[in-house]
Amino acid sequence: MADTEILIERAYSAFNKRDIDGALALMTEDVSWPKASEGGRVVGKEEIRAYWMRQWGEFDPYVDPLVITEGDGGKVRVRVHQLVRSLEGDVLADGEVLHVFTVKSGLIAAMELGDEADAAAGPSAAFSHRH
């Protein structure tokens, strides 16, 4: 668990620092990621890079892992405190959400939004305050 916990903590730290290359280095080439602010999914590092660049151009999200638990089949559940601000600094969302990661060969292969009934349906509630 220690290696997986370090992997997950490094990924959140890189995301919060806007260190895209640092975060992507912790992922498989075919990583699958939810587009929380848009709905749907992206696959592959370059699609994640493009998505994050769009997201950070509209919002200022910060996610802090609170509890990391490892389950079966390489699944890692992470309860996070998520703070989403507008670029002007207004708080759009402030609360806890669940992220579920799939880890393969020491790298992040996928992330799911654990609290979303259907991640493909549309944006996460945290990002629903679009202007």
Automatic annotation (TrEMBL):
Superkingdom of the organism of origin: Bacteria
SUPFAM superfamilies with a match to the protein in the record: NTF2-like
Transmembrane segments: none
Domain SnoaL-like positions: 8-110
Protein name: SnoaL-like domain-containing protein
